[in-house]
Amino acid sequence: MTDTIRDVAIIGGGPAGLSAAMALREAGINDIVVIEREREAGGIPRHCGHPPFGIREFRRLYTGLAYARRLVEEARKSGASLLTSHTVTGARMDEDKIVLAVATPDGMTEIAARRVLIATGTRETTRAARLISGERPLGVFNTGALQSYAYLEHRRPFERPVIIGTELVALSAILTCRTLGARPVAMIESGERPTAPLPYFVYPRLIGIPVLTETKLVDIIGRPRVEAVRVKDRQGNERDIACDGVILTGQFTPEAQAARLLGVEIDPATGGPAIDQFGRTSHPAIFAAGNVLHPVETAGWCYREGRSIARFIARDLQSGLPEAKAALPLSAEGALRYVVPQRIVPGEEGIGHLQMRVKAAASGTLSISQAGKVRSSNAISRLPERRLTLSMPDISTEGGAVVVTL
Amino acid sequence: MVADVLVIGAGVVGCATARRFALAGARVILLEKGADILSGASKANSAILHTGFDAPPDSLELACMQAGYAEYLDIRERFNLPVVETGAMVVAWTPEEQASLPAIADQAVKNGVRDIRRIGPADIRAREPFLAESAREAVLVPREHVIDPWSPFLAYMIQAQALGAEFHFLTQVTGGQFDGETWQVETNRGPFKARSIINCAGIFGDRIEEALLGDTHFSIHPRKGQFVVFDKLAARFLKTIILPVPTERTKGVVLCRTAFGNVLVGPTAEEQEDRLRITTDETALQALIARAVEMVPALQGMGVTATYAGLRPASDKKHYRIRVEKDRHWITLGGIRSTGLTASLGIAAHALELYRTLGHGEDKALQPVADPPVFPVRNLAEDRPRDWSARGNGGIVCHCELVTRREVEEALSGPLPAGDYGGLRRRTRCGMGRCQGFNCQAQVARMSEGRLRIPMTLGEVKP
Q1: Residue B302: which residues within 8 A CB-CB, separation 6 or more?
Q2: Across the interface, do A87 and B402 touch by the CB < 8 Å criterion?
């Protein structure tokens, strides 16, 4: 069905995918195709009508929407081809290429490429996956859907929602509500303190939105629309808060369907593909970058990571990367929720750092060891959902599996 | 117009009945208080097409199930409706349950389901390698199947509509009078007239009798069932429907495939007084997941795609509650608590037989439609081609379930358009996948604007 073999097919046209396309072109790789399932490329920033985006990449302060447009424009200018409304629905591995089955508005087609980059991003955990109790009225959804209502479709789904969760994205939910003329009635957090850094919570308090910590959502009431939520505080007291919507924020999870179709190994800790420090998955011709690897980082981080991993793809095509088989497994233990990459080829810098997250607020010694032998250690203290990185450790080829513990 | 038959309730029984009477040549009016078909008990079932192997012997329930089963298989290709031929195993996990298997097998044979087999651990393992090793023995029922629990009734209703049946949604029956010849039924949307009434009001069946007949022959005791739907990744761990050994009260928790490629576990069986408030409950959902993991340990940590709950119209007796008032031209098809999906077509045919015994004059005899039109519905099942792989589909709107713009448009403007977001989701599967509308809900809300009986948004905001 297809005679053309592309150099690189990038699945996902968000910050990581588009920046990778640009970087590949800059590195002299000619034939790049970005496969985007939405009608417009740009990824999650498309939904975010508010700043700040793009300061480091473009030295300008953009809204997410404007940032997404700029990314698309730059990617097009670079000469990469961009296919929108194209969805990867299957894959087959040939000796010298990967053939993707792609659904388009005009039926099925195939795209063959020497290398594939998975850059499919992330989404928030749904109501169902959180097993939230209650009725199932209209108006209960994630921040991502809220942003689409506001910035893509210009429709108001409710007027006085409650916001569940206090990650950074919950602040985006507030800003988005303001655009819609909706006024959140409360922010609800089951933990002892807000997840995002405290200074951010000056804002909801300033505009009069109470932030209820150590409070759990125990019931959603109403049909066909939300009429109230029931919450339970630390003492076990229950009360109803009148509202007409529920925004479930955060608890990001990788959008890993394409990775599964391609059959690459998934790390249960991240939910995304496992990679080495070059972004290589368990299939040496398939790479991954951006938030599909690590829920969740900023658009800017994904942009830089896309560029960084693109350079390894270019090197792989031009002169070859070190043998993937030489990699040693790397795993996270103790208070750590995950570590990316999950494999390291000794003596290679690659993306240059390990990225981690803690399960709960933790402080102690972050140590790297091989076969019980500690190779490095640092004292650290971290809250959940805060960036935690470490320079690529110096490990021994003979030392065996690498463990990072907190 | 004075209809021949006024059907109250557009659940599985009401829809099948409306179609059966339309085919028989009756002028049909169907009143539904919800915004779409299958808005009550019928929207929350386990989607199994039952053989009736475990139904009470010689019961009306068994007869209706087997007639319904046969008719479904007979018509399904013309309507483009799926059957996933999974088979079922009634699995005994304890010595006590194992002791009940011979009786289950005997009853199956007595019920005419003769192709059942008792199989031991090795055969169980060969068939379902991921099933827990504690499975001691099973009764294999090869012809228990999985279907799409929604599309058939849409297909029946479209056919009924083409034959002149009238449907009124958001229409709640509040009372009525019978003058010896004709019923006048009062609703929130004005009166409707018909010569006879078929009460298919499900969870409100007894209330409808009370309101219109002045007395009721049964009382509904709602029984809540909660379900968990696992991610499609779970499908590789299970092919066969896993049924428990039933108890007096309930058929128990089932683990099975869905026609859409997921695996579901449920239902719970919880008595409740409230007929309106239907909730999921975290503790119960966790218990269902734990039960599923006991049965298939590989489901440990499996993602949850959806959770839902429904009320089954259980009554004070186990059997179907059928009431015929010949002089008052009345039929109640009630107490159809968990076999209604399978039995619906059989119940509808039975209702037509009962109708012929009502005290209408000879001149009211119906003329069956000679060559009824059939409108195939779009396939939603995973095992057959869907619109996303076809030309001109307008692109994919819902990425998790691969629902196309054309499919959503059709569901909004077709012959029996969706009445609410739930109806739209069930017609197309949009928003039913992993992300539960994270990506598509807002777009679908906009597409549906001005076209649903219950709007998804409060209106436009100027950018």
Answers
A1: B230, B231, B233, B234
A2: yes
Distances (CA, A) of B447 to B411, B440, B451: 11, 11, 8
Model pLDDT, residue A80:
97
Looking at the domain assignment, is residue B23 inside a domain?
yes
Minimal-distance CA residue of chain B relative to A106: B391
Do residues B103 and B210 share a domain?
no
pLDDT band at A2; cut points 50, 70, 90: low
Give the strands of the sheet with A373-382, arranged side by side: A343-344, A328-333, A402-405, A362-370, A373-382
DSSP per residue, B361-376: -GGG-----SS----P
Whether B195 and B96 map to the same domain: the answer is no
> What is the CATH classification number for the domain harbouring B247?
3.30.9.10
Domain spanning A126-250, CATH class: alpha beta
Length reported for chain A: 406
Q: Is residue B371 part of a domain?
A: no
Closest CA relative to residue B420, chosen from A243, A150, A136: A136
Residues B124 and B262 in one domain: yes
The span from the CA of A352 to the CA of A305, in Å, is: 11
> Would you state the pLDDT for residue A199?
86
Q: For chain B, how many structural domains are there in total?
A: 3
Partner residue facing B396 (CB), from A87, A134, A157: A87
Partners of residue A109 on adjacent β-strands = A102
Q: Is B15 left (phi over 0), alpha (psi -120 to 50) or beta?
A: alpha
Say which of B305, B390, B459 has its CB closest to residue A156. B459
Question: Which residues, in sequence order, are bridge partners of residue A187?
Answer: A163, A211
Residue A359 tokens read as: 């399960």
- Evaluated on CA atoms A56, A57, A61, A67, the torsion sign reads negative
Residue B74 placed within a domain: no
Strand partners, B308: B227
User: Identity (one letter) of the amino acid at A284?
Assistant: P
Q: With CA atoms as reference, report the closest residue to A262 among A276, A274, A270.
A: A274
- What is the side-by-side strand order in the sheet with A216-221? A216-221, A228-232, A238-242
Q: Tell me what pLDDT residue B362 has.
A: 57
CA distance B188 to chain A (A): 18
Q: What does CATH list as the number for A1-124+251-321? A: 3.50.50.60
Residues 6+ apart with CB under 8 A from A35: A9, A10, A11, A12, A13, A83, A86, A87, A88, A100, A102, A111
- Shortest distance between the Cα of B20 and any Cα of chain A, in A, equals 31
State both tokens at A55.
Answer: 């300061």
Minimal Cα distance from A144: which residue of B?
B438
* Bridge partners for A188 per DSSP: A164, A212
Given a cut of 70, is residue B363 above it in pLDDT? Answer: no
In chain B, % helix, strand, coil (3-state, to 5) comes to 35, 20, 45
- pLDDT for A180-215, tens place per residue? 999 999 999 999 999 998 888 888 888 899 999 999
Compute the mean pLDDT over every residue in chain A, rounded to the nearest whole number. 95
Instruction: Provide the token pair at B80.
Output: 């483009």
Q: Which domain holds residue B130?
A: 83-147+221-312
Q: Which residues of A touch B437 (CB under 8 A)?
A: 141, 145
Give the integer Cα–Cα distance in Å for B172 and B32. 7
According to the model, what pLDDT value does residue A204 have?
A: 87
pLDDT, residue B1, reads 84
Give yes or no on whether A1-124+251-321 and A126-250 have one common fold. Answer: yes
How far apart (Å, rounded) are the C-alpha atoms in residues B136 and B121? 6
**Whether pLDDT at A296 is above 60:** yes
Of A138, A151, A220, the CB nearest to B456: A138
> Cβ–Cβ of A157/B445 closer than 8 Å?
yes
Residues 416-445 of B with CB under 8 A from A: 420-421, 434-439, 441-443, 445
Domain boundaries, chain A: 1-124+251-321, 126-250, 326-406
| B134 DSSP assignment | T
